[in-house]
Structures are given as C-alpha cells and as structure tokens.
Specification:
It contains 13 helices and 7 strands. The chain has about 350 residues and is an alpha/beta fold. It has a single domain (about 15-355), classed as Rossmann fold, CATH 3.40.50. Strands 3-2-1-4-5-7-6 form a 7-stranded mixed β-sheet, sandwiched between helices. The radius of gyration is 20 Å and the shape is globular.
C-alpha cells in the first residue's frame, strides 16, 4: 500500500502539553543520572558546552534535566558556558517554549538558549559541534505515514500485514536519525535518548496488562461514526504516524558492525527498558475520586493525540465543527473513565539508551 498523507504533528499548544504531561516529565527526570554520567565522560573541548534537545515541544518537561545538566558541567568546570539548542518542527509552539525556558533557566548565568524549527529527520547542527544530545519521548513519531490501518488507530494494534510498512519506516527513520546525530556529535560526545518502545513483556504506552488506551481511542472514534457524526472514511483516516520499536529493533544498527551507524562511529553504551507509572492513575488509587481522575487523565492523552483526530476530519466540516467533534470524542472517553475508572492508565514504557561518538 502506498503511504498516506501524514498529518501535521504538533503537541497541543499554549503550555497545555507540559501542564498536562506530568508522566512525561517524570520520564525525563529519570534520565538525569544518565545525563550526569554522560557529562562526566565527555571531553571538555574549548568553547561552550553544546547541548541539543531534540523534539522539545514547549520545553517545559525537560527544564529540570537541563538545570541538572548545567550543574554537572559546572561541577567539572565552574566557568564553562552552556549553549542549549531546542529543536522541533516549524509549527511547534516556540513562543511558549521561549517563555518557559526563560522562566526555568533564565537565572543561570552563562547559559544560552536557542531554537531550531528543523525536524530531527534532518541535519540541525554543524559537523562535530555537539557535546550532548538529548531526546525524551519524541522519536516514535515517523517521518511519514507509511500505510493505513483498517480497524485500529495505532500500528501496535494493527494486523501483522499492516504493521510491516510501519516497521520498515521506523527502521529507516531510526537509521536516518542516528546518522544525522553521528555527524553532529563531536568525538567523545554522547546521545541520551528515552523512546517509547514495546518491551520484553509486550507492554507499551497505555497498555501494561490493563485497559488498552489505543483500543479505547479506536472504540470512541468509531462510536462517532455509529452516531452519524463522522464517516467511515474519517474513522479510517485517524492513524498515528508512530511505531513502538522493540529493544532488538533499537539495537539492530549497533549490533551490526557493518551497519552505516556503526561505521559512522556511534557505539551503544547503555540500553534498558523501564515502565514509569501513570501519575494520574496513581493519584486515583489513593484518592478514589473517579470524576477527578477522568478530568485529569484525559487531558494528558489529548495533549499529544488531538491533532491526529482533528486531521482525520474532512475539510468539508467548518473549523469550529471539527473542534466540536473532537471535543465530543474526548468527552466520551472521559465519561467512560469516570464511570469505570479501574484499569485506565497511561503508563509510560520506554527504552533508555546512551550512545557515544568514537573518534
């Protein structure tokens, strides 16, 4: 099957994303020890210590990590300047990013923040100019939508045949990302990445043995068709351009010494999977307030998924009507969670990796 048009990828803006993704911040904070160890190993060449945050969204979720990174650099060289380049797609909400970065890092002397509206599927920085690259919960997004799913919104629940082009696209994209980063890294530089994955138990974002978030998405989206609100074509058009790789798929370019990535000088130093529990479900387990849980939980899903469902609606709907349809979709999800809260959770399942540039 030929590829489908890929919807514009963006997180919900105006600070909504970082305000409603506490779990994503917990994941990034858990990377701090990996970043601290990486900084300790990186040669401190002349000039500023140069950092890139790939796929930073509105910048709010990684502020704690960036402050810890600056502290780690200054522990080695108290006077070292630090330059941080935040990267994301051109339609990212950079205005909010600038405000949050200034509020979160502006009190640190000798720290300089920049932004690049360039995808991490492209080169962003000059050759051998980067000391440390970081990315948290971003590189599961594909560069294009390689196929269509008949009865699912995410490839993780597609048929075996439907998953083939998604897996192939994910492998090609992974190589592209790594080769660009290998060119950008200075010798001895490091990449610290936390990517969504399908772990050894078969778990993935929104499914750790309980209710399945992606199945619930599909159910409520199809429910709008059954209610005569959207068409069958609009049901089928809601496909996430995402793929959750296994550990073997993440490791493949490093485990092959003849691969382009290995020949580019990238070496895998650390690889592990971890589950970060959904903070909203954890709070519900203590407070047992279904309505409060649903009202807090569904916005964290909406913060990163809304644009896919908006993009699936036909242009014949006026803009206000499209938003109303998507509001109804999330309201139905929230109503289900409020009525039957047990089992709903968006646990984060990540593969944490550290890579070094030889040379």
């Amino acid at each position: 099957m030929s590829g489908q048009p890929t919807p514009i990828i963006r997180m919900r803006d105006a600070g909504y994303y970082s305000a409603n993704t506490i779990g994503a911040r917990h994941v990034i904070d858990s990377c701090i020890p990996l970043v601290q160890r990486a900084v300790a190993e990186i040669p401190l060449t002349g000039g500023a210590f140069r950092v890139a945050d790939y796929g930073a969204a509105d910048g709010g979720t990684s502020l704690g990590l960036q402050r810890a990174l600056v502290d780690a650099v200054r522990a080695r060289d108290a006077g070292r300047q630090v330059a941080i380049t935040y990267t994301d797609l051109p339609h990212n909400d950079f205005s909010t990013l600038f405000r949050q970065v200034q509020a979160g890092l502006g009190d640190l002397p000798g720290v300089f923040a920049f932004a690049s509206g360039t995808s991490f599927y492209s080169r962003i920085l000059p050759d051998a100019s980067l000391h440390l690259g970081f990315s948290g919960t971003a590189m599961h997004w594909l560069s294009r939508l390689p196929g269509q799913l008949a009865d699912a919104v995410h490839a993780v629940l597609g048929t075996a045949a439907e998953r083939v082009p998604f897996a192939a696209q994910a492998a090609a994209d992974w190589q592209t990302i790594l080769l660009h980063r290998a060119a950008e890294l200075a010798p001895g530089g490091r990449l610290v990445l936390a990517n969504f994955c399908q772990d050894e138990a078969g778990y993935y974002l929104g499914y750790t043995g309980r209710k399945n978030m992606h199945a619930t998405f599909a159910k409520h989206w199809a429910g709008l068709r059954d209610a005569g609100v959207i068409t069958e074509a609009e049901v089928r058009a809601a496909n996430f351009p995402q793929f959750y790789k296994t550990v073997a798929e993440f490791r493949a370019p490093f485990d092959d010494p003849a691969s382009a990535v290995s020949r580019a000088g990238l070496v895998l130093e650390h690889c592990e999977t971890r589950i970060t529990p959904c903070p909203y479900a954890a709070r519900f387990a203590q407070e047992r307030d279904p309505a409060a849980f649903a009202a807090a939980y569904v916005p964290t899903l909406r913060s990163w998924s809304e644009n896919v469902f908006l993009g699936a609606l036909d242009a014949s709907h006026p803009a206000g009507q499209r938003q109303a349809i998507v509001d109804r979709f999330y309201a139905s999800y929230e109503a289900e969670v409020a009525a039957e809260p047990d089992g709903h959770a968006m646990d984060y399942v990540h593969c944490f990796m550290v890579m070094a540039k030889q040379g």
